[in-house]
Each structure stands twice: as C-alpha cells, then as structure tokens.
Design brief:
By secondary structure, the protein is an alpha+beta fold. It folds into 2 domains: about 70 residues, Arc Repressor Mutant, subunit A; about 180 residues, GAF domain (Beta-Lactamase), CATH 3.30.450.40. The strands form 2 sheets. It has a 6-stranded antiparallel β-sheet, with helices on both faces. This is IclR family transcriptional regulator. It comes from Sphingobacterium haloxyli. One of its GO terms (molecular function) is DNA binding. Keywords: DNA-binding, Transcription, Transcription regulation.
Length: about 260
C-alpha cells in the first residue's frame, strides 16, 4: 500500500490518544502534561484536550496535588472483563444455588467496577418472598455490605486509589473517613460483613470475600436476608455466615485458588 493510501486512513486524534496511553504505560511514575508532551515530541497545547478526554473516560488519572497523569486500571479491566466475569460466574453459580437452597435465602456475587459495586451473578431463594438483586446493577461501594467487603480486602494502594476517585468519600469529614477506615479494618479481621441494608428496611446483608489480590480475582458473595415474622425455619445469622464460608471455599476451589482463612 502506498504512503498516500496509508495517510488516507489515518485518524490523528486516535493516534494521539493511543500515543499518550502507550507513553504512560512505559513510565515508572506519573507524568506532567509538559513531560508527556516532551516525550511525544509535541507541544503541551497539542495534547491538552486529549488528556482531558482520556481522564473524563477513566483511562488516565490526574493527581489533584501534583497534576501529574498516570494510567488507571480501566484498560486492564476491559481486556480481562469478559474472561474474568465468565470464569467467575462459571465457578460460582452452582455453589451459590446450593447455598441458597440450604439457607432458603438469595445470594449475589459482586465485583468492583470503577468506584461502584457491579452484580455479576444471582441465585434465587426457593421461598415465595425474597429479595431480588438484578445482575448488572451498580451499587454504592461506601454504604453496601458488598462494597465494604470488597474494599476491606483490597491492598492498601488499590483501596486508596479507588477511594481517592470516589466523590462521596471525598466529601466525608476527616472523622468520618477515619471511622470508615476503622470499619474496613474490622471487616477484614472478622472475615465477613454483617449489616442492615442501606437500601431498604427489614433486610440484613451478609458478605464474604472471594479470592484475593495476588490472584487477580477479587469478588464478594452476599446474602440479603428478608426479616420475616415467626418463621421457625428461618436460618440464624450464624447459619448464614457458615453457609457463605462453605460456598466461598467451593468457589475458590473451582477457581483453583487457595482459600483464605
């Protein structure tokens, strides 16, 4: 193909954006706008709009203090999303259904997507009345059992990066942030979350982590128990936690992971 033909199909804006992403991927630390421009042999004004667009779409992050740019995990997530979610669902659905049948309660499996909780699998309760959690729904990570569980078992750097980008967390006072961090430490030490639902009265959520950071798989399994009146067959909270832990081990075994204590 001639050079004229090649030029005909060029997309300058796309090439500029890809060049920025590739450049940042090769840098050991965050880069300023002028450093990126120098590295790409362009002027700072040439890349200003592209940096703003990449930041707006979540591909890069600009530090609020230094104003330097670094890549986020969005590209990694997009490249692994399909295989990761399908692998997780395949490993989890049967154990989840067994757990729901045992404790007569619905369960759902969640992961973090940016600064939200994304539900990727759901197991129905055999009871005629139960809480329904739709797959694909996004929830607040700061106020849900799933979100707190996921955050508590992240490594410190990833957790700080995610919380730094969360506008709701940034609006908290220093005391509120400190209390929230203490709660996450308690959850990690305890190994599970138990709390009233932040979305509706009469529901108690129980959540345990699935996987761990070194494996590249971090998810959580949650049961939303609807409180009922005078039901002799209603499982105790201890029964639910035990069922979740058993289910957790089965899922992690299916994934080929060594279960965490």
């Amino acid at each position: 193909m001639s050079s004229n033909s090649s030029d005909k199909y060029k997309a300058p804006a796309l090439e500029k954006g890809l060049a920025i992403i590739e450049y940042l991927a090769l840098q050991p630390s965050a880069q300023s706008q002028s450093e990126i421009a120098t590295g790409l042999q362009r002027s700072p004004n040439e890349i200003y709009r592209m940096l703003a667009s990449l930041e707006a779409r979540g591909y890069i992050h600009r530090d609020a203090i230094s104003s330097k740019y670094s890549l986020t995990l969005k590209l990694y997530y997009l490249s692994h999303r399909h295989s990761f979610v399908e692998k997780l669902r395949s490993a989890a659905l049967q154990p989840m259904r067994q757990a729901s049948a045992t404790i007569q309660q619905p369960g759902h499996l969640s992961i973090l997507f940016n600064d939200k909780v994304l539900v990727v699998a759901y197991s129905k309760s055999p009871r005629p009345i139960a809480v329904m959690i739709e797959e694909g729904n996004l929830y607040n990570m700061l106020t849900t059992a799933s979100g707190k569980t996921l955050l508590s078992f992240l490594d410190d750097n990833n957790r700080e990066q995610i919380l730094h980008q969360n506008s709701s967390y940034q609006k908290l006072s220093k005391t509120q942030k400190r209390d929230f961090q203490k709660e996450l430490i308690h959850i990690k030490k305890q190994g599970y979350t138990e709390m009233p639902s932040s979305y509706a009265q009469g529901i108690v959520d129980f959540s345990v982590p699935i996987g761990h950071a070194p494996s590249g798989i971090t998810a959580c399994l949650t049961v939303s128990k609807l409180l009922t009146l005078a039901d002799e067959n209603e499982p105790s909270h201890d029964d639910i936690i035990q069922a979740l832990r058993t289910c957790k081990k089965e899922i992690e075994s299916n994934l080929g992971l060594v279960s965490l204590p």
